[in-house]
Amino acid sequence: MPVALVTGASSGIGAATATRLVAEGWEVVGAARRLDRLSQLKGVRPQALDVTDPRSVEQLVDAVPVCDLLVANAGGAFDLDPVGSADVDTWARMYDVNVLGLVRTVQAVLPALRAAKGHVVMTGSTAGRWVYEGGGGYVAAKHAVAALRDTLRLEETDVRVSEVAPGMVDTEEFSLVRFGGDEARARAVYEGVEALTANDVADAIVWVASRPAHVNIDLVQLTPLQQHAVHKVVRA
Questions:
Q1: Are 199 and 170 in contact (CB under 8 A)?
Q2: CATH class given for the domain over 3-234
Q3: What is the pLDDT of residues 104-140, one digit of tens each?
Q4: By three-state DSSP, how is residue 206 classified?
């Protein structure tokens, strides 16, 4: 049975992906800070993980000695402030979670992936290609994720490297975290838009991971039908 490690698996895209992989016959290790949430995922082996803590990430070496697939999904947006007044510490936090956390995780698991001739699938974003007002910090971080995918793809000859980059996804926490728990502002983001769901993105991730071993899907970008036409929904 192939082994998959899914980070950020306690909710949203990560939880949906872990659940889908189990259904597809994978042995899944779900990693996140909230073990109570992970324990609710049927068939998923929980692993405590804070991608901003090097010591926590190092424990993945023993937790996942064999790994065929890494779904590097941990990340998030923490503001919607213009460049001129943004809090640099908040930007640093976004960079640590989305970029440095990704690097730490890949470094920890890469020996096992090389041994298995495995696959890294990064959860990126349309923010890694498009800019929007107030999105500078998150956009910069997701542009860095896109650069990491391209670079790792060049460097690794026996490990497949892919990115799944969704646009606007309506999950239970993404916008709520971004707006500091303000539910009204979080819900307003999705008004009048049939946004993607976590399951839509999980479907794309599992499709990418299930291609034949000689096929590398470099990038899948998926958006709601309305996202090309409504400026505000570019804020993914």
A1: no
A2: alpha beta
A3: 999 999 999 999 999 999 999 999 999 988 899 999 9
A4: helix
**What's the CA gap between 133 and 232, in Å, rounded?**
9
Please tell me the distance from the alpha carbon of residue 51 to that of residue 57, in angstroms, as a whole number. Answer: 6
Give 159-212 pLDDT, tens digit per residue: 999 999 999 998 775 555 555 565 655 565 666 778 899 999 999 999 999 999
By the 10 Å C-beta count (0-12 exposed, 13-18 middle, 19+ buried), 225 is classed as exposed
Structure tokens at 26: 């994978």
Q: Is the pLDDT of residue 62 over 50?
A: yes
Domain boundaries, the chain: 3-234
Residue with tokens 């259904």: 23
Cα separation, 14 vs 9, whole angstroms: 4
The one catalytic residue in 95, 132, 138, 190 is 138
Q: What SS3 class is residue 142?
A: helix
For 58: left if phi > 0, alpha if psi spans -120 to 50, otherwise beta; the answer is alpha
Q: Which residues contact 178 (CB under 8 A, 6 or more apart)?
A: 76, 77, 78, 79, 80, 186
Whether 95 sits among the annotated catalytic residues: the reply is no
